[in-house]
Write a structure and sequence with these properties.
The structure is a homotetramer. Chain A is 24% helix and 29% strand. Chain A is α/β, with parallel strands linked by helices. A nine-stranded mixed β-sheet of chain A has the order 2-1-3-4-9-8-7-5-6.
Chain lengths: 241, 241, 241, 241
């Protein structure tokens, strides 16, 4: 526990290189902004992006990762199935996974959920209020009862996910929608946290409360077991019945 | 299953006798309006109110009740502990319980939850949108993805309840709040459904969608076992270990 | 509700044609035994098997199926991905799915769970006691507190599944293992029930209590919505925020 | 996080003063054995017992307690309701609670659960195997897939508790029973862990794996918020609706 948790921030990193509007908000990419924030929260952070070899997610990188953060949007289909499989196996072995915003449609999240992960959305000018519904949960630590994002893309129900094992946040949007915006799951020995905000044209990941939620999510998702200790072969010989 | 479910609608029945504004909306009491609606849904319905002997909840009545509906507000403290205990034992034995609106602060609900059941509230002029977050759940049957109550009292998070075993509805209020407004629990062999809407001065219980939710809640909460079949004494003699 | 639920019993149907030992127990196949039992419970039942065209699971069949039952073991890999995809989409749209025994390793179950679904096992001579841990749940209806299978294959923890939304049964095995043997999930609008017993060489599916559990599972998993009513496009135009 | 967690171990402390058999196993009381073990795990530990003034649970003690451990058996009825109320309020405000063995029938546990908390039991000569069903959970950290207690009192299902929010352990008993023996709950801002083993005549609390589970339980139940930060009064003035 005295060692710093090792976090890898994965970003598709396409918007920021093509759109001046996005580049103006995240000049070095969304991953760089999140990585800097997590560094200040005391984690050992590296980044990886889609266009690196093996998307930057080699076996060596994953074996040195306690918690993986995932942001993707327009290029989910370009993520190779082999890498998705590798990430899934690592999650089942205990690596934490924090999925952000449009990552709801990533191959890895859909594979771990088993559903379409579809939702409503609108790029408008909504205000988002994020309410805490699990006040004692580690992911809500240090937040008040609610925090506000003055402008965000709307995501609305029905969000086609399995019922969260723990629901931490519910969002209110000025246009009339609600959304389960902080959702915890376990899969194998791994913990998964989905957190809603983070449209690429908006400064959401510069917001200190958003950064705190992601940092809290990393701590919550940190592995207790980083390899499957349970060989599933029978430990007992047959008995007399 | 061919027999009609037997429902008892319990109401505090104080507002309707003291306030002209409430009487105008529910001339025979909230219980009468709900009972009539449930009768049309095919249930065998009776009512009971606070000022009847034993609050109308004699052992005979409870033994002939499959699902009990509870509305109370200003007189929670007048409900005798002995009757609360009787209702709790009946729920644990399998009777369904549907708790409405300000019933969140009733003795029976707090006792079954173990928490304060506190929440935010405002008698204003809010609009309420009730979103379905569990589309395949029996309690959401026949509803669309959302329904609206043009005017309702606001209830806001944090709602101090145990995390619902199933969350069916989330409400949006025009003032900026959200609320987990359809919550399912089991206690013993009994099923409990909390449903938020129903301020006494508003015609909420005349709304066909609200009536449908209550009817769906009754069907969902109907007992599969109406007495504890499991005597908790060891069925096995000690073995050789 | 007055119409009979339409059940399709799917079976790999390989063991029964190759092994005299299995044929002796299930001369017409496991599916035939289960189908006959469900017919007696009042359902409208058909069967489908692996070696039929499209594995017997054409779009027409699935559209006429309320609940699909799945038994497979040695030929999971032969089930075409296209059919698995079709079944998954139908489950998400509301069709119930009851997965039996070695179906834990089927493509459809693993895809809906997102985990390995691995477990311990032993073909020995274990006795299995199946304890009810959710006495008010519809799937436990009509059972006592426990029922026994004198001989069954052992399945042991850790069973690598997401935490069940509702755990109905826990099995005890004479060799020293336990197993979460009745597990409920929702995915999209669909309900999924996994039920452990049913080794092919043993008369488990002739057991009236096992038959009752499967029938209860069919009733619980029956759809409330059989098509996605929720088009996930925003119903509101942007507001002034 | 750098400060040690403050643990109070509460024990009824009656068996140990009346029974030579119990005194032989726990000469200074069960609380002393548990306190010593938790001290070695790095916590700041104090103890409290039934016959102290206010049962040793003054407001000052509770305000200086992050996690309370509870063992009781023959004198549940002697615990004053006022103290139970005080402990409940502190749990709802964020204090962790670890309830051991026969504490299942304590006033505080029943009040937080809302059920009878009844179970089967047998003082025989059972062997208990405790299986991990949530391998990535912090409470399972450092354990293998199963650990054994050569002799323990049997507790069997049905255990009349609300469905655990997380089920960590399931016990197997040689006499044929199973039991949900590691159960996690949240109530308000507080976390509650029930752990089954610990009959007073047996050396269970000297077992290093049992001690580790209790220490893990303390870390898991540690508060993130130790006072209700959420004043439940509406933060918004009425809007135009």
């Amino acid at each position: 526990m005295s060692e710093a948790l090792r976090v890898t921030v994965w970003n598709e990193f396409r918007h920021e290189r093509k759109s001046e509007a996005v580049k103006a908000v995240y000049p070095d990419g969304i991953h760089a902004t999140i990585a800097a924030a997590l560094g200040e929260h005391g984690f050992e952070v590296r980044t990886a992006t889609l266009d690196e070899p093996e998307h930057g997610l080699t076996s060596e990188v994953l074996e040195a990762t306690d918690v993986l953060i995932w942001w993707g949007h327009v290029a989910h289909g370009e993520v190779q199935d082999e890498i998705v499989e590798r990430v899934q196996q690592r999650v089942l072995a205990g690596m934490g996974l924090v999925v952000l915003h449009s990552g709801h449609f990533s191959k890895i999240f859909k594979r771990l959920m088993g559903t379409t992960c579809d939702l409503k959305w609108r790029e408008g000018n909504d205000r988002e209020l994020i309410w805490v519904v699990a006040p004692g949960h580690p992911i809500a630590e240090g937040l008040g009862e609610m925090f506000m994002l003055e402008h965000e893309e709307m995501y609305g129900e029905h969000f086609d996910i399995p019922p969260p094992e723990t629901l931490v946040f519910v969002s209110w949007f000025s246009g009339g929608e609600v959304f389960r915006s902080g959702c915890c799951y376990t899969r194998g020995a791994g913990k998964i946290f989905y957190f809603r905000p983070g449209h690429e044209t908006l400064p959401t990941y510069h917001n200190p409360q958003v950064q705190r939620v992601i940092a809290n999510g990393v701590r919550w998702a940190a592995p207790t077991v980083i390899e499957r200790v349970f060989g599933n072969t029978p430990p007992h010989v047959p008995t007399e019945g």
